[in-house]
UniProtKB/TrEMBL annotation:
Keywords per UniProt: Signal
Domain Solute-binding protein family 3/N-terminal residues, every copy: 54-282
PROSITE patterns: PROKAR_LIPOPROTEIN
Top-level taxonomy: Bacteria, Bacillati, Bacillota, Clostridia, Lachnospirales
The name this protein goes by in its record: L-cystine transport system substrate-binding protein
Pfam family, one: SBP_bac_3
Organism: Anaerocolumna xylanovorans DSM 12503
Length: 291
């Protein structure tokens, strides 16, 4: 992609599981008794059940609209539906979903085989984990300020301001990288996973701004009943991926198989339909087309 397309120097936004849950509730560690995607090998019609490999997939259970539990306790959401479509087209695998306290720990300790949580990539994480090559979603992230306040357009305009972020998040990575090159010109305030705290500080003036992907803005405004404003242009572009264990032949085979199906789902319009259904727009297109 072009320079203003997917950024590779990015990291995870794990905190957004609580953000998009509306009230900031955290994932509960559970395998779930009514998980819709935990299907028997016999469901793989025409496939020798002895050759079907069970794949343990870690997803969130309160990451609305990406992965959460419905009133019956079944997993639903955009990422869940994408994974279901992938599973349908891979007869050699059978996906079983579960929710874990820490997806990366579960992956490295061989408790799950694939993790899904709108994860992004950066060089350091590439050293430790195997990232898929096909995107799950694409992001255009903006500088967010209080409605009616001074609209901040660039990192340069954030200099001397206080910007809220989360330790280890993609936003923090972007801002920290800028600060390394500009003598810590932006004051960063690291917060916990409760997004309502940031919104309260924004309202009081304790912080001036924060960064947020465009696709998340409607959920934030609706879930917290707030009106926010964004910069006219994105502050960065990014993409999200499924993640696997590195240096594992079986995991590499799984990654390649899943990527092959994701490429097909992107080309035939399935990802676009699912994104529009769950996210309200197509967040699988080039990020610069997300306005």
């Amino acid at each position: 992609m072009k320079a203003k397309k997917l950024v590779t120097a990015l990291v995870l936004i794990g905190v957004l599981s609580s953000v998009l849950a509306g009230c900031g509730t955290k994932d509960k560690t559970t395998s779930g008794s009514n998980q819709p995607a935990v299907t028997a090998a016999s469901d793989k019609k025409g496939t020798d059940t002895a050759k079907v490999e069970k794949i343990r997939v870690a997803v969130a259970n309160d990451f609305n609209p990406y992965a959460y539990l419905d009133e019956k306790g079944d997993y639903i959401g955009y990422e869940v539906d994408v994974l279901k479509k992938v599973d349908e087209l891979l007869p050699q695998y059978e996906f079983e979903y579960q929710t874990v306290a820490d997806q990366f720990v579960a992956l490295t300790s061989n408790k799950v085989d694939l993790i899904s949580h709108q994860w992004e990539s950066n060089p350091e994480r590439q050293k430790t984990y195997l990232f898929g090559k096909e995107i799950v979603t694409t992001w255009a992230a903006y500088i967010i300020t209080k409605d009616g306040a001074e609209k901040l357009q660039t990192y340069k305009e954030l200099e001397g301001k206080t910007v809220a972020t989360f330790q280890g998040s993609n936003d923090a990575y972007q801002l920290e990288t800028y600060n390394k090159e500009h003598n810590n010109a932006i004051k960063l305030e690291y917060n916990s996973g409760d997004f309502s705290v940031i919104l309260s500080k924004l309202e009081s003036g304790a912080v001036d701004a924060f960064l947020l992907p465009l696709s998340y803005l409607p959920s934030i405004e609706e879930g917290y009943k707030v009106k926010l404003q964004r910069s006219d242009e994105p502050s960065y572009y990014s993409g999200t991926y499924f993640i696997y264990r590195r240096d594992d032949a079986d995991e590499t085979a799984l990654q390649e198989a899943v990527d092959g199906v994701l490429k097909t789902l992107h080309e035939d319009g399935t990802l676009e339909k699912l994104s529009t259904q769950w996210l309200g727009a197509d967040y699988t297109v080039e990020p610069e087309d997300q306005k």
